[in-house]
Amino acid sequence: MEPINKTGVSEFFLKGFSGYPLLEHLLFPLCSGMYLVTLLGNTAIVVVSMLDTRLHTPMYFFLGNLSILDICYTSSFVPLMLAHLLSSRKTISFTACAIQMCLSLATGSTECLLLAIMAYDRYLAICQPLRYPVLMNHRLCLLLAGTAWALCLLKSVTETIIAMRLPFCSHHIVRHFTCEILAVLKLACGDTSISEVFLLVGSILLLPVPLALICFSYALILASILRVPSAAGRRKAFSTCSAHLAVVLLFYGTVIFMYMKPKSKEAHISDEVFTVLYAIVTPMLNPIIYSLRNKEVKDAARRVWDSRQACR
């Protein structure tokens, strides 16, 4: 994917935190550590769910997809951001900016749909336990995950091409630490209405709609759990769903806080710091939440570790 550059722009300057050198030196070790934890934690989830046959279930298939998404999302901007935190040259080429924009849009959008799919999977597992193996078979898992990835990639490629084909007549300073589409659109001197319509429709389809489906699924799950006569059964069902609910609240809470604020509000450096932290903290916490709250994951990790030690 390489949009045609008719604007004469060869590169953009990512302003980020260039006016706050002390903050840059503070953010570098903090973000580096969180990025390392994100890579290790999510990679561990993917490896364990692949190597342990007991985790070859729809729930862990979708969890593995979520971990891959988090790795791709953070890797689309964190390495360059870390390099810019230590460098005075904070530029990015036109093509690299378009690729970064597309990847972040695609992975963020896919996560919105994937969380809704995971809620539907939990609904079937708890509310339709006898029919669950038939309803949520391997073919349907592949279809749901593949459709989410493909649709969001197509949407993001379209949004990126439309945005990057606009003329950029003013300065080329992006007031952000990454090529975030709204920040780049502020530099365009052409008609941005088409881009804004696409972004509005996408925001409606990927924020309120999946969130409503998630809330509806968990309302049905809660009603079903409360009818379980066994206290142990209720605890197990609550434990299974609480990790997913924590991830949903963390993801949607931060996204809605950042992107549903009034547009008239003046941007502050605190907003950018919060954006950096939520963009790295959320993917870092996902594997921690799932592994610490899930006995199956911890047992599987222990079995994989023991088998590797035995092979030595």
Key descriptive features of the protein:
Rhopdopsin 7-helix transmembrane proteins, 312 residues, 3 strands, 3-stranded mixed β-sheet, cell membrane, 74% helix
Task: Describe the SSE topology.
Layout: E1 11-14, H1 21-51, H2 58-75, H3 78-85, E2 91-93, H4 94-127, H5 132-135, H6 138-164, E3 173-174, H7 181-185, H8 193-206, H9 208-226, H10 231-259, H11 269-293, H12 295-311
What do these coordinates show?
- The structure is a single chain.
- This protein has 312 residues and is mainly alpha-helical.
- The protein has a single domain, classed as Rhopdopsin 7-helix transmembrane proteins, CATH 1.20.1070.10.
- Helix content is 74%, strand content 3%.
- The protein has twelve helices and three strands.
- It has helices spanning 21-51, 58-75, 78-85, 94-127, 132-135, 138-164, 181-185, 193-206, 208-226, 231-259, 269-293, 295-311, and strands at residues 11-14, 91-93, 173-174.
- The chain has a three-stranded mixed β-sheet with strand order 2-1-3.
- It is globular.
- The model has no long low-confidence stretch (mean pLDDT 84).
* Radius of gyration based on Cα positions: 21 Å
Structural class, judged by helices and strands? mainly alpha
Q: Within the largest sheet, what's the order of strands?
A: 2-1-3
Largest sheet at a glance?
A: 3 strands, mixed
Number of helices: 12
Q: Low-confidence spans: pLDDT under 50, at least 5 residues? A: none
- The number of domains is 1
H/E order of the elements?
EHHHEHHHEHHHHHH
What fraction, in percent, of the residue positions are helical? over 70%
Quaternary state of this entry equals: single chain
The CATH topology annotation reads as Rhopdopsin 7-helix transmembrane proteins
How many distinct beta strands?
A: 3
Write the CATH homologous superfamily: Rhodopsin 7-helix transmembrane proteins
Name of the top-level CATH class: Mainly Alpha
Shape: globular
